[in-house]
Amino acid sequence: MIRKEKWNRPTFVAILMATSVALVTSVAIVTNVAPAAAADVLKPPPGTTPGDAEYRLGPDDLIEVFVWKEPELTATVTVRPDGRVSLPLAGEIEASGKTAVELQQDITAKLGKFIVQPVVNVMVKQVNSLKISVLGEVRRPDVYKIKNRVTVLDAIAMAGGFTDLARPNRVVVLRNTPSGPQRIKINIRELVGNEGEKPFYLQPLDTVYVE
Prior knowledge:
By secondary structure, this protein is of the alpha+beta class. It has two domains: 51-126, wza like fold; 131-210, Outer membrane lipoprotein wza fold like (Roll). The chain is 28% helix and 25% strand. The strands form three sheets. A five-stranded mixed beta sheet has the order 7-6-10-8-9, covered by helices on one side. Strands 2-1-5 form a three-stranded antiparallel beta sheet, covered by helices on one side. A hairpin with a 2-residue loop joins strand 8 (171-177) and strand 9 (180-186). The protein is elongated, with a radius of gyration of 26 Å.
């Protein structure tokens, strides 16, 4: 049962003033800590996935290209394994590795050869390119889709954990970089046992191999 109490005007004003002081104090505290929070956002841990910043397209992603007042040029397409998309009039365009805005600018430039001041909008309809592989001595080796950044420990957990034959001190992350493939060796025992050790974040298309 809800009780309703009557307040006289002096009491109400006093409570209102006290509440205002508390609110101002809270705002001041939040204002003082805001720069630190912003610094954390601007400096994500190494290996951050595209989902943490501005997302970059990859193979199998589904996008919609909308051209204003040109319905025959509007299309929903999937980024092919070679990283390209084929669009009416614009033809073949490289999409993989670009943001939606960057791709939008490329399409606008292509269509500008045929249409006066085209207005293009690119929307990511479905993200399918964020994947990692977990292989070797895990209980469910497979390719796993990810929506957020994951650590190497998260990946092993997704794969059901180690088998009885696994050697946690011999885990390798295979990663393709612009400078070539990398082999990153990770000792899971040290990673878990050392309290000061930072988590190792995976990147899309990484392969975790457990010996």
